[in-house]
TrEMBL record, chains A, B:
Belongs to the RecR family. Keywords: DNA damage, DNA recombination, DNA repair, Metal-binding, Zinc, Zinc-finger. This is Recombination protein RecR. It comes from Nocardioides renjunii. Pfam families: RecR_C, RecR_HhH, RecR_ZnF, Toprim_4. Residues 79-174 form the Toprim domain.
Length: 198, 198
């Protein structure tokens, strides 16, 4: 219905996650009226991101080099490895400044419904990293949902026989939240995981 | 927090209408994992759309030439001019195949709250198009909302003294809808605009 190249743009935008046909149209019309230099900047950064961003050959974190900043950083504790689903989880954990070990990014979580099993994740690349005995603890920091729990359970069964300490992030009440608004499962876990008051 | 160019991409995406910080992140991560050729295609179409798409010098419709397809089409009725807010309204009306005249795209609607008055719209370019007497009817097809109504009222006052026939699109029940779900204003207008049964 639209002039050729406008329709092409709407089609391309509509392929992005969370962008439906109406949003794609809205973004396209915005871009039609935007300054050419602004649209050019978006196009350039798209090209640049694909040219420059790779995945770390060791941990599969996003990296502009063969190995990522964290894997190259000699000050990081090599004995603790934190297994996460995605790059954005690395960023979230780094933001806390609580963790000084290294990461392993699985690239997703086990989800039979989406056809994702351990073979589709970077599980096989995790094993050689644990072979030489440097890593003594693996923290399974998968998402606290069905797929994340399944992934953590799978990895626990795989790693425990290797004599490693395998840990999970604590479940409980989110800080700053209201107890009465916590869902039953979270509140139940907060009870189960209660600690002695200091 | 993210690697330089990834953050740049998130920032650029976050400037698009309707794309919040979380959506921008989600789209960015999708693009990080997408095939380079797919991302390249999006970048190319962005550049192409700005290079090729102009606005018609007569009616301000989107066009790949100096004058748009509709203005160039000799079979279109030059005596009826349909005034719309945006390019997408032209597309919507063309889809009905009910209208065979020409268009004038205002580029928006009067909205004092957003600082948009007649001077920010293509109103002054409308006047010369009505000067030679070819156009005998102007259809005001602005949106049926506050800004659209204000714009239509403004244009009516401007055009009526010129001796033109000035019309508005009919208000009433949407076809395929349920009467009981129509809002009061729409239902009221449907009554006010009732016609003899054939």
């Amino acid at each position: 219905m639209y002039e050729g190249v406008v329709q092409d743009l709407i089609d391309e935008l509509g392929r992005l996650p969370g962008v439906g046909p109406k949003s794609a149209q809205r973004i396209a019309f915005h871009l039609l009226q935007a300054e050419p230099v602004d649209v050019r900047r978006l196009a350039d950064v798209l090209i640049e991101v694909k040219a420059r961003v790779k995945f770390c050959s060791t941990c599969f974190n996003v990296s502009e080099d063969e190995r990522c900043r964290i894997c190259r950083d000699e000050r990081r504790d090599p004995s603790v490895l934190c297994v996460v689903e995605e790059y954005k989880d690395v960023v979230a954990i780094e933001r806390t400044r609580e963790f000084r070990g290294r990461y392993h990014v699985l690239g997703g979580a086990i989800s039979p419904i989406d056809g994702i099993g351990p073979d589709q994740l970077h599980v096989k690349e995790l094993m050689p990293r644990l072979a030489d005995g440097t890593v003594t603890e693996v923290i399974l920091a998968t998402d606290p949902n069905l797929e994340g729990e399944a992934t953590a359970t799978y990895l626990t069964r795989l790693l425990l026989p290797m004599g490693l300490r395998v840990t999970r992030l604590a479940s409980g009440l989110p800080v700053g939240g209201d107890l009465e608004y916590a869902d039953e499962v979270t509140l139940g876990r907060a009870f189960a995981g209660r600690r002695s008051a200091e």
